[in-house]
Amino acid sequence: xxxxxxxxxxxxxxxxxxxxxxAMLQWQHFDAVRMGSTLGAEISGVDLTTDLPEVxxxxxxxxxLDYKVLSFREQPMSAAQHVVFARRFGxxxxxxxxxxxxxxxxxxxxxxxxQVTGFENGWHHELTWRERPSLGVIQHALEVPVLGGxxxxxxxxxxxxxxxxxxRSLIDSxxxxxxxxxxxxxxxxxxxxxxxxxxxxxxxHPMVCVHPETGRRHLFVNQIFVEQIDGMDxxxxxxxxxxxxxxxxxxxxxxxxxRWEPHTVAFWDNRAVQHYTMPDYWPTIRVMDRASIVGTxxxx
Length: 300
Prior knowledge:
Helix content: 25-40%
Mean pLDDT: 93
Number of helices: 8
Structural class: alpha+beta
Order of helices and strands: HEEHEHEEEHHEHHEEEEHEEEE
Strand content: 15-25%
CATH topology: Double-stranded beta-helix
CATH architecture: 4-Layer Sandwich
CATH superfamily: Clavaminate synthase-like
Number of domains: 1
Strand order of the largest sheet: 1-2-3-13-5-15-4
Shape: globular
């Protein structure tokens, strides 16, 4: 039990330190109410439907880096306003497998119901199978169930720091191989699959990355898109991946849960968090608009 107690103390110390750091933050152009100890804040005092001054956008960008997940209530954005706001933070992605249905090529509408399912029900970063995965995601709730369909977020800085030393030493210098076909391949006819494979070959990303803006180390693996651990026997690699992903999924100390309301907007740092959407709203309807911002190639 001594090892467990020591590890529990490490967790409590890390969480307390991060909680105290976030408690010291102050903002000039909006208010922030924190959602959890290490991540998440609900932002008020800004109207995302307007042309925000650059100083406000810059402060929101900093808040994203600090809190990792931002939520905004009562933001009835049009599709055009959503795109304009998202572009303030960088170039927007066009998803090669999910065509736009909003009139804007870089804005996707997800309509999920009892007849239409999706792939969000597992812990993951977005688009890790791309050479330049998403920097962040801005999602706008158009229609939500009265109950259910919440999105959970897990802090990848904390998940890395709270791994045991043996596991960290195993993953610090290893790469994972990411493959789109684990999710999107089965829906494609064979000839189309070959075309998309040529356009989107498997990629290697470090299991542990250095965030390009904060300089902090974070986990960057998931069980949805990772095909295998580079240089490891498949069984051993799968065991290591499972060990790491349990740290991400099974520890609510560094997670928050967002309950959506109509016109809630969430903005999350795709590098610093993973997310998971609860599949508990069937057969009611959940409609979301999403814009994703192009990131940089992950590095250690």
